[in-house]
Amino acid sequence: MRRWIIIAAVIVAAVLAWRVFAAGDASEQSEYRFSVIDRGDVVRAVSATGRLEPVGTVEIGSQLSGEVSEVLVDYNDRVEAGQVIARLDPD
Fold first, then answer.
1. Contact 54, 41 (CB under 8 A)
2. What is the pTM of this model?
3. Could you give the angle at the alpha carbon of 59 between the alpha carbons of 55 and 61, nearest 5°?
4. 28-57 per-position pLDDT tens digit
């Protein structure tokens, strides 16, 4: 049993020594780039694949009927309670 503990300790020490020396080699290979700092717009690119679906949906209904003469909001606009979203033709 003691023999296996010694073998395991030697293996652990060898792995630790390898990690220390391997890390030293990696830091020597580091490459730095220097650049002038300037101001500009923040640009963000987002890409996605698959099917996009809204996080939440709301069913909107009406108790009135008639011909819509004017729509005051667009698809995906934020609306608040009491906001007029469409006008009906009064004729």
1. no
2. 0.31
3. 160
4. 566 788 888 888 888 888 887 888 788 888
